[in-house]
Amino acid sequence: MSKLVVEVLDASDLMPKDGNGSASPFVEVDFDQQRQRTQTKHKDINPSWNEQLVFSVADPKNLPNSTVDVVVYNDQKGNHHKNFLGRVRISGISIPLSESEAAIQRYPLEKRGMFSYIRGDIALKVYAICDPSYSAAPMHFEGVGVVEPQKLEDIHNKKLEEEVKNDAAKKKKKKEKERRTFHSIGTANTTNFHTVPPPSFSGFGFESGKPVTAERRSDFARVGQSTAMHMQFPGQPEFGLVETSPPVAARMGYRGRYKTETTYDLVEQMHYLYVNVVKARDLPSMDLTGSLDPYVEVKLGNYKGVTKYLEKNQNPVWGQIFAFSRERLQSNLVEVVLKDKDFAKDDFVGRVAFDLSEVPVRVPPDSPLAPEWYKLEDKNGEKVKGEVMLAVWMGTQADESFPDAWHSDAHSVNVENLSNTRSQVYFSPKLCYLRIHIIEAQDLVPSDRGRNPNTFVKIQLGNQHRVTRPSPNHSVNPIWNEELMFVASEPMDDRIIITVEDRIGPDKHEILGVLVLPVYAATQRHDNKLVNPKWFNLDKHSSAKEDEEKKEIRFSSKIHLRLTLDLGYHVLDEATHYSSDLQPSAKHLKKPSIGVLEIGILSARNLLPMKTSEGRATDAYCVAKYANKWIRTRTILDTLAPRWNEQYTWEVYDPCTVITVGVFDNCHVNGSKEEQSKDKRIGKVRIRLSTLETDRVYIHYYPLLVLQPGLKKTGEIQLALRFTCTAWVNMVNLYSKPLLPKMHYAQPISVHHLDWLRHQAMQIVAARLSRSEPPLRREAIEYMLDVDYHMWSLRRSKANFNRIMSLLSGVMAIGRWLNDICMWRNPVTTCLVHILFVILVCYPELILPTIFLYLFVIGIWNYRFRPRQPPHMDAKLSHADRAHPDELDEEFDTFPTSRPPDLVRIRYDRLRSVAGRIQTVAGDLATQGERLQAILSWRDPRATAIFITFSLIWAIILYVTPFQVVAILLGIYMLRHPRFRSRMPSVPFNFFKRLPAKSDLLL
C-alpha cells in the first residue's frame, strides 16, 4: 500500500495566545479520515518539530483529488483545550510521487473564519511513497496510460541521479533560493473546498474545457526553480498571480536582526560598500609645467569607478560616492588610487587601501559616516606627499547616499549617461482649469467700413487653441456669450493670447484686435459663484510701419471677458476608470489623509531580451505613479532578472484609487540618437487600493502583458504592497461622499470637454517631467496615463459587450430559476416558494425585512469566496487572448490611419457589420420603450381604450377585494402546474407585442 509522508519541520512568528507573548503550539494533520499530531513545544512562537507523520493511501488513483489539512493549535491546558493558530490545506494534485522530488516549502498560515487573527508560516515537506509490494492498483493517468508504481519510482530515481551529477555549489544556491519563497497552497479552490469538487487530473493537465481560473491558488504556479512537481499543466493560468514570500522584514515580525531593517521592510535588504571620495590636498606636481590634473579610481576586483578629472588643481574637490554590491564583491581589498590625467599614460600619484573586514557598518537612522583624511602611499606602502579625504562604510539601499551614488550595476555607462540610470522621485505640476467667458466686444474697426464683420474669437494658451462660434449679430459690437476652458499649470506666468478676427472669405481672416494677458491675471475661485467680468482694451494688429505712422491712438476697441481660475475642480490627467488622484486643485479643499500606501519593487524575472540586435539583454527600470507623485527606479543593466529592492511611500486620501507600475527598457544608457532613443514598453500593472486589506502585506509576481502585435507575456514583476489606514472613521465616511470634488457636480463639465482637457493635461505633465534630470520620458508618461484610451478598439468593444452579457446572465439565471419553479421542475422547492409567498402576502410588513436579511445572508455566505489576491489585468476579460492580429493592428494604428486603402476598406466593412448588429439591438430596446409610452398615448386608440377599460375594472375589483386575496390568487396562477399551462404566449404578452412603436416612422 502507498504511503503519504508529511514532515513537519518548523514554524515562525506564530500568534501569542497565553497572554504572556508566547504560545505552546502543536500540529495536527488530517488525511483521508486519518489524524496524527506532533509534540507540543512549550512557550515557543518559533517552534521546531522535525517530525515525520506517515499516512496510508488507500487508493493512489484518488490522491490528486484528496486534501491534506495541516492545522496549528496552541495547547492551552493539556489536550482538551486548544486555540487555533492557523491552517494550511494542500491539494493532492501538488504532492510529488517520490521523496527525491519533494522540496521544503514554507506556507503562510490561513484564517479559519471571519474573526480569526492569524500570522506566521510553517515549513513542510510532503510527498508520496509507492510501496513496491503494492501492485494490485496501478496508477492510471488520463492521456498517459497505465504506469506501474515501481516504474514511476524508477523514473524518479533516474531523475535524481541526473541531478546529483550537477555542480554542488550551483545545487546549493538553487536550494537556498527555493527555501526563501512561498508557494501557493495547492487546493483546487481554497475558498470553496467543500462545495466545489477538485478538477479531474490527467498526465498532461486538467481536462479540456475545465481550465483553472486565475482566482484559484494552485501549487503548479511555481516561484523560481522549484522541483516539487515536474509535470506541466497546460490548463494552468499562464497570466495569473503567483504568491511569494521573500525574506523581508515585514514578514519576519521585526524580531532579532530584522529590527534594524524596518525602514525598508517590504524589500530584501541589499548590502553595498560605499566609498565617498570628498577631496584631496597638498598633492605633488607631476608634469614638467608643475601642474596636476587629478582624478580618483576606486577599484574593487573587476569593478572600477572613476571620478571626473580637474585640470591644474592640487587641492581638488570631487564629492562623488561609489556603491559596490556586496553580492558581486570579488576582492577583500578596496583601493582608492589617485592619478594624474595625461595624454599618453596617466601617472600614478598615490593610493589608499582598505580591508573589507575592517570597514564599519552603518545602520540607519545613524548619522552619515564622517569622512577622514588619509595619507597617500606609493606602490610599496611608503607614505608620499598628499592627502585624500574619504569615507568607507557598509550599508543598504536605505542609505541616503544610495540614489546619487555611482553603482557597480551601471559600471559600463559613461559619465554623461550615468544620470539616466539613477532612481528619482518626480512630482506632477499643479494643474487647474482656466475658464474664459467671452461675452461681447465694442467698437471693432474692420478694414472695410461698409460691411458688417463676421467675427469670432481665437484663444491660445501654450499649445492649446480654442475658437468660438461666429457672432450671431454681424456688427462692430458683436456678442458671443460663450465659455471656453483650458488647463493651466504652475507657475501661472504663461500668456493668454486672445485674438478677435473677421472672416472675410474662405480661409481668409482679418485680425481686428489682440489681447495678451498672463494667467495670474485671472481671478481664483473655489466654488461656482460668478466672478465679475472686466473690459479689456484690444491692441490694433498692425505692421511696424503703421505703428510708426500712428503713434497716437485716439481710442481702442474693447472686449468684455470673465477670467476665472477654477481651483475647486480636480484636473484629470489619466483615464477616469483608474484614476490615482481625485483631489481638487485648491490645497485647503483637499481631504485629510486616511492612510499610507507602501510599495516595494523587488525584482522581475523572465523578461524578454529587448536589445538582441546590440548583443545585450534588457536594461530594465520601473516607473510607478500614484496621485501627483511619480517614482523611477534605477536601471539594472543587461539582465533578464533584475533586482531593484526599492521601497516608496505615498499618502492616501481616497481608497477608491489605483496605482500603476510600469516596466521599461532604458534606451539612453549608451548615448543613442534622439530619434532612436525611445524607451521600450515591457508591461504594466494596475492595483486598486480599495481591494486591499488593511495592514496586510501582499507579495506576488504579476504578469507583464503587451498586446502588439499579439498578446505576449514579456515577464513578471515582483511587488510588495501594504495599505495602512490611519483614520478609520474618515475612510468609512468617504464611502458616503461623492467621488469627485463638489464643483464637478455644482457646475459639471461635458464629457467631450473633459476628454479634450484630459489630453491637454497629459501633454503638460509629459512636457514638464521630460525636462527633469534624469528626464522621465514622454513615451513612458503616455503609456502610464493611457494617452490613447479614447481611441476606437474592436477588441475593447467586444470586451465591454461580454461584460454586459455577464451581468445580464445573472438576471437570466434568476429568470430561469423562476421558470423552473413555475414549471414545477423541483416540486419541493416550488412548494416552499408557495409557503413563503403566502406568508409574505399575509404579513406584508415582513417583505422588506426578509429581503434585507436575505442580502445579509448572501453577503456572509460569499465571504468564503472573497478574493485572496490583489486584482491584476485579466487577459480573458480584456478579450486579449482571442483577439485577431488585424484587430490589434487596427487598435494601435495612428490617427489618421497610416495603413493602405485596401486594408482600411476591409476594416471599414467590418466596422459596418459590427455597428449594424449594435444598431439592431439599440432599435429593439427603443421599440420596447416606445410600446410602453404608447399604452396611454392613444397612438392606437383601440389598444388604449382596451387598457383604460381594463384598468377601471381592476380598480373596482381591487377596491372591493382585499389585497391579500388578489395577490394570493395571482401568485397561485403564476405558479400553477404545467398541466394547466398552454404553450401559446399569454394575453398580456400578446397585447404588449401589438402596441405600436416609432420604428415604422424611420426612413
TrEMBL record:
Membrane-traversing stretches: 831-861, 946-975
Entry membrane topology: Multi-pass membrane protein
Protein location: Membrane
GO cellular component, one term: membrane
Domain of life from the UniProt record: Eukaryota
Coiled-coil features, chain-numbered ranges: 152-181
One matching Pfam family: C2
Ranges where the C2 domain occurs: 1-111, 254-374, 412-536, 578-702
Family: Belongs to the MCTP family.
Name the record gives this protein: C2 domain-containing protein
Keywords, comma-separated and alphabetical: Coiled coil, Membrane, Repeat, Transmembrane, Transmembrane helix
